[in-house]
Amino acid sequence: MNLRVTLGVLFLIIGAFFPLDHLSAKDDDKDQIEKLMEKLHEGKKSPYRQLLAAAEKPAADWETLGKTAPPFVPLAKLLKQSKNAEIRDSADGYADAVDGLAKAFTAKDWAKARKAIAALKNSCADCHFKGGVGGELED
Length: 139
Description:
By secondary structure, the protein is mostly helical. It has helices at residues 3-17, 30-41, 47-55, 62-68, 72-80, 85-90, 92-107, 110-129. The chain has one domain: Up-down Bundle (Four Helix Bundle (Hemerythrin (Met), subunit A)), CATH 1.20.120. It contains 8 helices and no strands.
């Protein structure tokens, strides 16, 4: 086989398994964050909507909440560790709210859980509508 063909095939294989689009200074890990954000926050039955609905109830359903809340932790971590400085700098409110939510669930403190859910909701507005990097996203 010709050396050029061999190298071409090798680069195609490497490109398929290790795409270089993640090296873009503008996007970094933004696509991955957007996908996870959509999965957790969009739709009537999304974990985010379930948390908001739970916060309206006078008492906690810890079993349901224990299934709903944990997926927010990896997203908060991803936001705080993003390669994109704008995302990292906009992530404090979200990460703090998720941390507060996790602590409240561990302590089974419904009042603190409700406050953390409200803080999570506020962090979304801060980022998407008050100048954070999320304000650049299409809604």
